[in-house]
Amino acid sequence: MGMDDKVKNATQEAVGKAKKGVGDATDNRDLQAEGAGEEAGAKVKKAAEDVKDGARDAADDIRDATR
């Protein structure tokens, strides 16, 4: 993934944490859930990025080894 996607995911995770924190502080369960959902979604996207980056690195290593 590109740097733009990584920044967007980090921003989404931060916003999710903030919403969850405000929800905790105000005892607003809807906001807690919304924040937790956004945070989890960002973490899933980050994990997918990590897998994709790892696969690309492995392919590069294989390509370099066969030269």
Summarize the structure.
The chain is mainly alpha-helical and 67 residues long. The radius of gyration is 17 Å and the shape is rod-shaped.
Overview of the structural elements:
It is a single chain. The longest helix is centred in the C-terminal third of the chain and has 37 residues. The chain is mainly alpha-helical and 67 residues long. Helices cover 91% and strands 0% of the residues. The chain has one domain. The protein has two helices and no strands. It is rod-shaped.
Secondary-structure element order, N to C: HH
Distance between the termini: 26 Å
The total beta strand count reads 0
Considering DSSP H and I runs of 4 or more, what fraction of the residues is helical?
over 70%
Largest sheet: none
Describe the global form: rod-shaped
Q: Which class best fits the helix and strand makeup? A: mainly alpha
What does the radius of gyration come to?
A: 17 Å
Question: Could you name the key traits of this structure?
Answer:
67 residues; mainly alpha; 2 helices
What does the secondary structure layout of this molecule look like, with pairings?
Elements: H1 3-26, H2 29-65
Helix pairs in contact: 1-2
